[in-house]
Specification:
This protein is α/β, with parallel strands linked by helices and about 240 residues long. It has helices at about 5-15, 30-35, 100-110, 135-145, 160-165, 190-205, 210-225; strands at about 20-25, 45-50, 65-70, 85-90, 110-130, 170-185, 230-240. The chain has a single domain (about 5-240), classed as Rossmann fold. A 7-stranded mixed beta sheet has the order 3-2-1-4-5-7-6. Helix 1 crosses helix 2 (about 30-35), helix 4 (about 135-145) crosses helix 6 (about 190-205) and helix 6 packs antiparallel against helix 7 (about 210-225). The longest helix is centred in the last third of the chain and has 17 residues, at about 210-225. It binds S-adenosylmethionine.
């Protein structure tokens, strides 16, 4: 979450070829789609799937290689067997009722030799530099443990579980990657600002924390940022899985 580099890293792991047929499962607003498309040429095909209707990202509006589909990933995927060469799914698995059934479906729609990148942040590993360590811990745990309005279910520690989910799937596992991207800006529009305010938003709605404490926490982060002492990071994990040729 909140790390632009993450989408480049996911697209890099996918190792797409200029004419690959690629699907992004739970594409959201399409940051990963943009990174993947940059690696495709005219014969490539890119499909984004999400439960909610999504607009194409600005850079891809009108691109004939992109198709956006509304579908529920808790149901069989609306694709033929072997239809794709590459599949990616990032920060979605925690919302799914049956992760094992989902991975079996991804395996089905990939061609033999196809690659699947299953990525997830582990929200219990969020770090903010703050003078109030106790409140930071409470806010991070609250964020990690909160099922947000757009989710049917959640598990903020899914990042540490994806290797196990992949290991019991039909895929062969090439490697488990871990990334920590460090962000030091709290400027509006930056990823650090977005992360701090997402965590603050959840804290405000928790009666054990509330507005007053959250306002003080944010003001503390601003002070540290003015002294160039602000830091935000989260651990992100990704499994590179392969369907045997
Ligand atoms: C945290 S966002 C991640 C978006 C994108 N993959 C990324 O990394 O930026 C999770 C996305 O999964 C979608 N999603 C959650 N449950 C879903 C389901 N059962 N079927 C399809 N999409 C789902 C949500 O609508 C949302 O866009």
């Amino acid at each position: 979450m909140f790390a632009p580099e993450r989408h480049r890293q996911l697209a890099g792991l996918l190792d797409v070829h200029p004419a690959s047929r690629v699907v992004d499962l739970g594409c959201g607003s399409g940051h990963t789609l943009t990174e993947i498309m940059a690696r495709l040429e005219v014969a490539g095909v890119l499909v984004g799937v999400d439960a909610r209707r999504q607009r194409a990202p600005d850079a891809l509006v009108g691109d004939p290689r992109l198709r956006l589909i509304v579908a529920d990933l808790d149901q069989p995927l609306p694709f033929a067997a072997g239809q794709f060469d590459r599949a990616v799914c990032h920060n979605v698995l925690e919302c799914l009722a049956e992760p094992d059934a989902f991975l079996a479906e991804v395996w089905r729609v990939l061609a033999p030799g196809g690659l699947f990148v299953l990525g997830h942040s582990d929200f219990d590993t969020i770090v903010f530099t703050s003078d109030n360590l106790a409140l930071t811990r409470r806010l991070v745990h609250c964020y990690c443990d909160t099922t947000q309005k757009w989710m049917r279910r959640s598990d903020g520690t899914t990042g540490r579980r994806i290797a196990g989910v992949a290991a019991r799937s039909p895929f062969a596992i090439d490697r488990v990657h871990a990334w920590v991207n460090v962000l030091t800006s709290l400027e509006p529009g930056s990823s650090g600002h977005e992360a701090a305010h997402a965590v603050a938003h959840v804290g405000r709605r928790d009666p054990r924390i509330g507005d007053h404490a959250v306002d003080g926490w944010l003001a503390g982060l601003e002070r540290l940022a003015r002294d160039n002492a602000f830091l935000y990071s989260v651990n992100d994990y990704a499994v590179l899985a392969r369907k045997s040729p």
